[in-house]
Amino acid sequence: MRLLENKVAIITGASSGIGYETAKLFAREGAKLVLSARNEKALNALVEDIQNNNGEAIAIVGDVQDEALAKKLVEVAVDKYGSLDVAFNNAGTLGVLGSSTQLTLKKWNETINTNLTSAFLGAKFQIEEMKKGGGSIIFTSTFVGYTVGMPHMSAYAASKAGIIGLTQSLATEFATNNIRVNSLLPGGTDTPMGRSVANTPETVSFVEGLHAMKRMASPQEIAKSALYLASDMSSFTTGTALLCDGGISINRT
User: Fold this and answer.
1) Which of 40, 152, 176, 177 is the most exposed place for a label (fewest CB within 10 A)?
2) 140: pLDDT confidence band, cut at 50, 70 and 90?
3) Considering only CA atoms, which of 61, 62, 85 is closest in space to residue 9?
4) Domain at 8-244: CATH code
5) Gap between the Cα atoms of 130 and 226, Å rounded
C-alpha cells in the first residue's frame, strides 16, 4: 500500500523546487493534493502532469501572506476531497541578502511575513480542520539561524528560526488532538532559490564544501524527508527540527 493512500494534503510553494518534487512524490504515494503557489502557469502544468499520471490534484493560485488564501486552501481540500490529513507549509523566500544595518523595515517585514507569519496563518486553519481526525503539519525551515550563522541573512535566519519555535509550541498544544507538527531543515539544495545564491561555479563549489557530504541535495531527496513526516512512518514524531542537511550542521572539514 502506498504511504499516503487516500490522504488529503496541502502543499504551498508547489510550483518549483522542493514543493514541486514533494507534490509529485506525494501524488505517487496516493495523496489527493491541493497545491498553491504564485506562478499560475507552472502550477497548472504541475497539476496537469499529476493528473496525466493518474493522480489527483487541484491548483489554487495565491500569496501565502494572504490569510484568505490560508483559509481557502483548507476549504477547498474539504469541499473537493472531504478532509485534510497533511499540510506542507513550504512556501518561502530568501529575502534581501546584504548588510543587516542597511536592511529596510519594509524588506524585513516582507521576509518575516512570507516565511513565518504565513506558517502561522496556514496552521491556524489547518489545525481547526485536523482536530476532527488528526493529521501532520510540516513547515520548511533551515539550518541557517538554527545550527549555523551566516552573514547578510538576518531576516531569513530570524524568520526560519521562528518557525522552529512555532513548531514546538503547536506540537505541544495539539498533540492530544492527534496532530503532529514538525519542521524540515534542508541543507543546500539544487533549486531555483538555492541557485540564486550558488550562482557561479565558485560559489557552488564553496557551498558544496560546507557540507560533510561535499555536495548539495537534490529537491527529490528533501521531498523524501517530507514524505516521512507526512506519513504514518513518523507516527511518534512531533515537535522536531528534522535536519536533512548533508552534515552541514556538524561539518568542520
Assistant:
1) 176
2) very high
3) 85
4) 3.40.50.720
5) 18
